[in-house]
């Protein structure tokens, strides 16, 4: 929504990768590389008809290699071994100078330090995971070892809470014992709808101790989206905070009868409201049950999770449809948390600050995982505050801060303050820090290192920028690309569909050529495994077959990336029917369905448009309403109740005519190109104001947006 001037505070905390999440990742703006568009398919007649170019370097190599080998043998025979060795090295260098050429030596020289650091980190990650796998350890086992080592150290801190490792463990044991006594066992699913607080972590951790899987539900969801998240996760029960009671009760009658409800209250005496349609007629008060449960250990006879068992579900919108539940196993949690720990050089004594929601991978795995697995302290916040970010870091003596791109922009927009430099933060990490503000951010706040990462919650193609290269979201080694098998392949930039050659295989992109990012799938390898979603049909859509050889498979991200000559990767754009706004993936099909219902089942087209000075793409909805029957004020109120903030269209356009394809699909490419420019559009245009009300978008308003006087 639009606000005049510079926003200092605001915006719900949101996270990345996720792609869940986790995060899937927040998309930075296009880099200054200005790469060309995706190349024509190799199957195109224009390419096939071209005469084949002779690779003279290859022929020269074939001639030089045996010739130099023969010379080496003769010198070795007549002059002695040292002359032979010297000549052997000379022949090797000469061969490499021919192919791949002298440029390869230069690239190898400048990227070897980066690649070496990453290689050693990757080895440490694999060793860490292998140790846990060999002993069949789960997240709870490692956490309890940290509790035994440092019971009174602070584990999770917030504005109103300071919980030690002992307190988190005791609460988790109470949760485990309550649900064990209620008959829940390994493989059961209990949803969690709770704001950022210590009990959030302790609750799912406790459930994991008896093998129960916990879907972490987005607290912004309401109505059909919330109901869908509960049912698609196959929940047999739901734990929800008192702040979400009305949202739960609104859908309670539509939930399956077997779903038990447990309300967690801030105060034990808080009212619990009965809901018609529930089998027992009343949600159970969880606080009272926890008070009487044993806290020292989990009851004997309770089931236990194994290393490869499912731990939590983290929801992501994917490319189409309602939220999908991405599977996170114990081993996957180990890999994500340990991967970023070793790659970015975290320390066990670090104090982490995350204002991101804990139901996303970024906050809930990458940051919280540092406490659970490595014994660090994590400071959480219920809602992100731009002006409070570095003051919180100073107050809690944080050494590592987490962000998403929008957050960095909000923070940078705040007035200068003493705490800008009066803090101990040595590093920030996250996803989506725009290259346009990256240098200003690190300069103003004195940040020595930025760890930018990219990945999807459900995917296996996760990358990190470990040397603070501005704008890069990660890299692939130019020397040893086989170590971490990720690639950028040629694809249709609009659909994301891979382009294939005459053999039916995919083609790797050259440097500075954008394409779709993929990660090779290797079964049984926690680093390369693709766990996908609870919905196996949805999972199959994220897998591409016959990539570089017949029978191989890869996870396809749906994002267009581009690599430079040194292997640094940069985000280019998103493909398909998804755009990113306020750190969240927005599914156009879901918004279209909701909006069409509210607009009297009229044709609706939803798409993302670029707004100057703003990260991501803002939602815009084009409604076919030639008779102008839709009441804008009423529609705005209904949208506020039906959709979370980030999914509500920032612009409305009421179409007088509509364009269909030959298969009766709505065209949106031309609408996207026109954006919200009233000079190009004769239809009525509206934009959402800071109070959530839609107002006419005139030429003067449009010019204010271009001048950055109206912010979204």
Automatic annotation (TrEMBL):
<dbReference type="InterPro" id="IPR000873">
    <property type="entry name" value="AMP-dep_synth/lig_dom"/>
</dbReference>
<keyword id="KW-0812">Transmembrane</keyword>
<dbReference type="GO" id="GO:0005324">
    <property type="term" value="F:long-chain fatty acid transmembrane transporter activity"/>
</dbReference>
<keyword id="KW-0547">Nucleotide-binding</keyword>
<feature type="domain" description="AMP-binding enzyme C-terminal">
    <location>
        <begin position="590"/>
        <end position="665"/>
    </location>
</feature>
<feature type="domain" description="AMP-dependent synthetase/ligase">
    <location>
        <begin position="143"/>
        <end position="500"/>
    </location>
</feature>
<keyword id="KW-0443">Lipid metabolism</keyword>
<keyword id="KW-0472">Membrane</keyword>
<dbReference type="Pfam" id="PF00501">
    <property type="entry name" value="AMP-binding"/>
</dbReference>
<dbReference type="InterPro" id="IPR020845">
    <property type="entry name" value="AMP-binding_CS"/>
</dbReference>
<keyword id="KW-1003">Cell membrane</keyword>
<dbReference type="GO" id="GO:0044539">
    <property type="term" value="P:long-chain fatty acid import into cell"/>
</dbReference>
<dbReference type="GO" id="GO:0005886">
    <property type="term" value="C:plasma membrane"/>
</dbReference>
<dbReference type="GO" id="GO:0000166">
    <property type="term" value="F:nucleotide binding"/>
</dbReference>
<keyword id="KW-1133">Transmembrane helix</keyword>
<keyword id="KW-0276">Fatty acid metabolism</keyword>
<dbReference type="InterPro" id="IPR025110">
    <property type="entry name" value="AMP-bd_C"/>
</dbReference>
<dbReference type="InterPro" id="IPR042099">
    <property type="entry name" value="ANL_N_sf"/>
</dbReference>
<keyword id="KW-0436">Ligase</keyword>
<protein>
    <recommendedName>
        <fullName>long-chain-fatty-acid--CoA ligase</fullName>
        <ecNumber>6.2.1.3</ecNumber>
    </recommendedName>
</protein>
<keyword id="KW-0813">Transport</keyword>
<dbReference type="Pfam" id="PF13193">
    <property type="entry name" value="AMP-binding_C"/>
</dbReference>
<comment type="similarity">
    <text>Belongs to the ATP-dependent AMP-binding enzyme family.</text>
</comment>
<dbReference type="InterPro" id="IPR045851">
    <property type="entry name" value="AMP-bd_C_sf"/>
</dbReference>
<dbReference type="GO" id="GO:0004467">
    <property type="term" value="F:long-chain fatty acid-CoA ligase activity"/>
</dbReference>
<dbReference type="GO" id="GO:0005789">
    <property type="term" value="C:endoplasmic reticulum membrane"/>
</dbReference>
């Amino acid at each position: 929504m639009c606000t005049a001037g510079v926003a200092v505070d605001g915006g719900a905390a949101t996270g990345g990768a996720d792609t869940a999440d986790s995060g899937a990742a927040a998309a930075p703006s296009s880099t200054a590389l200005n790469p060309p568009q995706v190349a024509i398919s190799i199957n195109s007649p224009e390419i096939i008809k071209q005469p084949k170019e002779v690779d003279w370097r290859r022929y020269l190599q074939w001639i030089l290699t045996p010739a130099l080998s023969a010379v080496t043998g003769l010198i070795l025979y007549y002059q002695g071994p040292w002359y032979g060795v010297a000549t052997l090295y000379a022949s090797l260098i000469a061969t490499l100078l021919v192919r791949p050429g002298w440029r390869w030596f230069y690239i190898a020289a400048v990227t070897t330090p980066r690649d070496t650091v990453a290689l050693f980190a990757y080895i440490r990650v694999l060793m860490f995971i292998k140790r846990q796998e060999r002993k069949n350890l789960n997240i709870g086992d490692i956490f309890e070892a940290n509790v035994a080592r440092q019971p009174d150290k602070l584990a999770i801190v917030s504005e109103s809470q300071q919980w030690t490792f002992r307190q988190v463990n005791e609460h988790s044991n109470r949760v485990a014992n309550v649900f064990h006594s209620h008959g829940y066992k390994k493989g059961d699913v209990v949803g969690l709808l709770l704001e950022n607080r210590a009990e959030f972590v302790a609750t799912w951790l406790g459930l994991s101790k008896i093998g129960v899987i916990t879907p972490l539900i987005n607290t912004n969801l309401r109505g059909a989206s919330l109901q869908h998240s509960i049912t698609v996760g196959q929940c047999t029960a739901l734990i929800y905070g008192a702040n979400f009671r009305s949202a739960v009760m609104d859908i309670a009658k539509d939930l399956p009868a077997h779903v038990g409800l447990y309300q967690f209250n801030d105060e034990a005496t808080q009212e619990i409201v009965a809901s018609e349609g529930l089998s027992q007629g009343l949600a159970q008060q969880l606080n009272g049950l926890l008070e009487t449960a044993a806290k020292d250990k989990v009851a004997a006879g309770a089931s236990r999770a194994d290393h490869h068992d499912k731990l939590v579900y983290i929801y992501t919108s994917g490319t189409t449809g309602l939220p999908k539940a991405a599977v996170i196993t114990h081993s996957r949690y180990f890999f994500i948390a340990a991967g970023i720990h070793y790659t970015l050089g975290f320390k066990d004594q670090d104090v982490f600050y995350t204002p991101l929601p804990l139901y996303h991978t970024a906050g809930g795995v990458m940051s919280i995982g540092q406490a659970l697995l490595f014994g660090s302290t994590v400071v959480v916040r219920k809602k992100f505050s731009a002006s409070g970010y570095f003051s919180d870091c100073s107050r809690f003596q944080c050494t590592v801060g987490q962000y998403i791109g929008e957050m960095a922009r909000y923070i940078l927009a705040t007035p200068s303050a003493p705490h800008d430099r009066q803090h101990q933060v040595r590093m920030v990490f996250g996803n989506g820090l725009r290259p346009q503000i990256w240098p200003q951010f690190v300069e103003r706040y004195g940040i020595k290192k930025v760890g930018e990462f990219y990945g999807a919650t459900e995917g296996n193609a996760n990358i990190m920028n470990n040397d603070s290269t501005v704008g890069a979201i990660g890299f692939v080694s130019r020397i040893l690309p086989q170590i971490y098998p990720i690639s950028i392949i040629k694809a249709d930039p609009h659909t994301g569909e891979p382009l294939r050659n005459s053999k039916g295989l995919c083609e790797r992109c050259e440097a500075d050529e954008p394409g779709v990012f993929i990660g090779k799938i290797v079964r049984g390898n926690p680093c390369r495994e693709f766990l996908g979603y609870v919905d196996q049909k949805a999972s199959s859509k994220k897998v591409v077959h016959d990539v570089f050889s017949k029978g191989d498979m890869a996870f396809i991200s749906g994002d267009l990336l581009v690599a430079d000559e040194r292997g640094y990767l940069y985000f280019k754009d998103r493909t398909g029917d998804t755009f990113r706004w306020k750190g969240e993936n927005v599914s156009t099909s879901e918004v279209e369905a909701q909006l069409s219902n509210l607009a009297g089942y009229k044709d609706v087209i939803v798409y993302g448009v670029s707004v100057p000075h703003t990260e991501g793409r803002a939602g815009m909805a084009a409604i076919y309403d030639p008779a102008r029957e839709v009441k804008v004020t009423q529609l705005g109120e209904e949208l506020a109740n039906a959709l979370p903030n980030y999914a509500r269209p920032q612009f409305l356009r009421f179409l007088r005519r509509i364009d269909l394809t030959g298969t009766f699909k709505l065209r949106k490419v031309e609408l996207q190109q026109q954006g919200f420019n009233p000079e190009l559009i004769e239809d009525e245009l509206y934009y959402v104001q800071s109070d959530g009300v839609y107002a006419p978008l005139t030429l003067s308003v449009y010019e204010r947006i271009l001048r950055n006087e109206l912010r979204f």
